[in-house]
Amino acid sequence: MAVVAFIGLLEIASGTSGLDLQRLSPLFVQEAIGGVLYGLELLIVAFDAQSLLAGLLAFPVVLLARFIAVALPVSLMKRRKVFTPGAIRILTWGGLRGGVSVALALSIPGKLADGTLVPEREMVLTITYVVVVVSIVVQGLTIGPLLRRTLAAAAVGPEEPLPVEAA
After folding, report:
1. Are 49 and 62 in contact (CB under 8 A)?
2. CA distances in angstroms from 138 to 64, 98, 152, listed in the order given
């Protein structure tokens, strides 16, 4: 992922991509650089079977937590706003993840002030990377079909834009 972002930035900078540097969003550049840095950090993370399994088991837990974090406020706001049917499902499945989670895991110090190692840091970092990669791959590949199915069930054509209240 980091290599793809880096190559894309090189193509843009060299002018071979067909994109104009003046039209690039600063947020895009920031996200691309962040992706490169997170990808480089991935090279030094120690992946072991226990951490990988823990990350795979954590994915549904994170998804459930995201569902609760979306469903509770949307359910409360339904009293005053109209939402597209399936909004909670779409917001839960399509939620952005990665940057903040990895940054928080990377912020765990490797050593305490007294020099004591923090062995849990590597496991937390590995679990975080596994959850992020699984969510990007699984949810990224399935969000399109989920949107089409949800909108079809709500009797809203896929060509028709979502109402403003759902955004």
Report:
1. no
2. 15, 14, 22
Distance CA 64, CA 71 (A): 10
pLDDT digits (tens, 9 = 90+) for 92-151: 998 766 778 888 888 889 888 898 988 888 889 899 989 988 888 888 889 889 988 888
Query: What is the spatial distance between Cα 46 and Cα 125, in angstroms, rounded to a whole number?
Result: 9
Tokens, residue 154: 């709500």
Cα separation, 166 vs 8, whole angstroms: 33
Q: What is the value of pTM for the model shown? A: 0.68
Burial label for 130, CB within 10 Å (0-12, 13-18, 19+), is buried
Parse the chain into domains and list their residue ranges.
1-44, 47-166
Please choose, from the candidates 133, 1, 124, 143, the residue with its C-alpha nearest in 3D space to the C-alpha of residue 59: 133
User: Token pair of 111, please?
Assistant: 């050593």
